[in-house]
Specification:
By secondary structure, the protein is mainly α. Helices cover 58% and strands 6% of the residues. It has helices at residues 13-24, 39-46, 66-75, 89-116, 118-126, 131-139, 141-152, 156-176, 191-199, 219-228, 232-244; strands spanning 5-8, 30-33, 55-57, 62-64. The protein has a four-stranded mixed sheet.
């Protein structure tokens, strides 16, 4: 089988979820960074349904979505990440919160960073592209930023709404971790640990993250992150990155 290709945005926490699982399961793949906006044409040519990332392409199929990529990776690895009882109430409850965390952590960050400080977002996209693509992205960045703001429905009001939802989810995970457990479910790393840690990564900014050295946190969110760093869930994310990433 040819080496699978994983198409990602460097900034995306959903892409980080898939990438972390592939790395942990020792699945060999080629990492392909894409430029925002222009990625849609490539994905259409590949036959993807829509323009969301990550996408993994191998000899047999195109697999779109971080959870779907993890499920595929487990079929080619001898070290599965899924629990013996993936439909247990605890797993389902966490799964139901994952998308909420991912969507609102992203909107909280972008509603300040992209709306008020768009040039701080540019490096984490452009610095991972080849020279020609990076030059093009830098040249039309204002257009890209404006399009992203409209597409993702970003703004001050939206950011405040997402902040409230993020805090609710952080509170829930803090309560779950109150018993001193190391992992969210069971006593070893599972896909739910990777999923939650990667989707909350923009709110923790662990040094082990493969691209967040280029993530510039906007000032109001930076104050929140400083306040949240002592939370059990923030410490959990830090611990997962330090141990397993």
């Amino acid at each position: 089988m040819a080496r699978p290709q994983l198409y990602v945005f460097a900034i995306s926490h959903y892409c980080e979820k898939a990438r972390w699982a592939l790395d942990y399961l020792a699945v060999d793949y080629e990492l392909m960074y894409l430029a925002p906006g222009m990625h849609a044409n490539l994905l259409a040519d590949l036959g993807a349904a829509g323009s969301s990332l990550p996408v993994l392409v191998n000899d047999e199929a195109l697999i779109q979505g971080s959870s779907e990529i993890i499920a595929w990776a487990e079929t080619v690895s001898s070290n599965p990440l899924t629990l013996d009882c993936p439909s247990s109430p605890g797993v389902i409850d966490i799964d139901n919160r994952e998308d909420m965390i991912g969507v609102h952590a992203r909107r909280l960050y972008y509603s300040e960073a992209l709306v008020e400080h768009p040039l701080t977002v540019l490096p984490i996209f452009a610095d991972y592209l080849d020279e020609a693509e990076a030059k093009l992205v830098r040249g039309i960045w204002q257009f890209i930023a404006t399009t992203m703001i409209e597409f993702m429905d970003l703004g001050a009001e939206q950011g405040l709404e997402s902040r409230g939802i993020v805090i609710q989810q952080l509170d829930w995970f803090d309560t779950l971790l109150d018993d001193g457990r190391d992992y969210l479910i069971g006593d070893t790393l599972t896909r739910v640990d990777i999923s939650v840690a990667s989707l909350l990564a923009p709110l923790v900014n662990a040094p082990e993250h493969p691209t967040y050295a280029n993530l510039q946190v906007p000032p109001r969110l930076a104050l929140d992150l400083a306040e949240w760093q002592s939370r059990p869930i923030s410490q959990f994310v830090t611990r997962m990155y330090k141990r397993h990433r």
